[in-house]
């Protein structure tokens, strides 16, 4: 397995993964062609990415196939003595390759990239109903120390 | 009270607020002059800010005094049909002006700015030990739907 950042041509494969999920199947719209909103969002991510502080999708590749993905966002901030944080979102592994520790390797790769960019903290939120996911992340060393609060604006 | 984005000259006032807090008092280093790390972090925030997608501190001002602050970060992403998110961090109100609903007004201002920039979701994490904060945010309409997971890399 190899890892690389996503480019625009990977969008259909990424949205397919995002939609292949209990929550994602109602939240996403995986059509051919993809809704323009996904391309606009990709361009917005690129517009706020720098080499030092990316906001990009990291892909797990098996040959030419995208078998896993996560969004990795480096966020500069003042708190904790100006500590750089890495934030993860949209973690998915193809249902075709479950049980091969691809999720674990992808998270480890994101931690490794975050360290190399100077981050001292990796964070994300996960829906409280995803109990299996919590056990998975706790095994990898994450601590559920915070409440993740959300407000939809629609 | 007025609101504006912070500039470099506001850093001592912001770090004073970050440090005037149960968690912050051990995490921050409010000295004169400030540690360079805060200035470097401010410059990093500026480097990843665009007009459309800021990563900036929003300040509540009483005349020339900074009486409250929060970090507001707009994060483009693919999930939820390419939904733009706003993220809050480092919310503080000066202990000199508690009870004047400054925290509430500052959060409302951040929501208003987020909406105007096209965000459909506002999110943040708050330490599970901050029970009073949770009630405050739930009153404002936030839902503690997620686990906030963290891993320190040091």
TrEMBL record, chains A, B:
Does Transferase appear among the keywords? yes
InterPro entries with a match to the protein in the record: Acyl_CoA_acyltransferase, Bact_Acetyltransf, GNAT_dom
SUPFAM superfamilies of this UniProt entry?
A: Acyl-CoA N-acyltransferases (Nat)
Q: Where is the N-acetyltransferase domain?
A: 1-154
- Alphabetical keyword list: Acyltransferase, Transferase
* Protein name according to UniProt: GNAT family N-acetyltransferase
Q: Which organism is it from?
A: Thalassospira povalilytica
């Amino acid at each position: 397995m190899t890892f690389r950042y996503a480019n625009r041509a990977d969008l259909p494969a990424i949205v397919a993964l995002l939609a292949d999920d209990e929550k994602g199947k109602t939240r996403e719209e995986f059509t051919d062609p993809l809704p323009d909103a996904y391309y606009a969002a990709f361009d917005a991510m690129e517009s706020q990415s720098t080499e030092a502080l990316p906001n990009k999708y990291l892909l797990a590749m098996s040959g030419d196939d995208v078998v896993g993905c996560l969004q990795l966002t480096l966020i500069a901030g003042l708190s904790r003595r100006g500590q750089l944080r890495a934030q993860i979102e949209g973690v998915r592994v193809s249902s075709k390759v479950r049980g091969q520790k691809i999720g674990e390797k992808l998270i480890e790769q994101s931690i490794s990239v975050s360290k190399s960019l100077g981050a001292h903290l990796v964070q994300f939120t996960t829906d409280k109903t995803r109990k299996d996911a919590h056990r998975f992340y706790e095994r990898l060393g994450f601590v559920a120390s915070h409440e993740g609060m959300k407000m939809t604006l629609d």
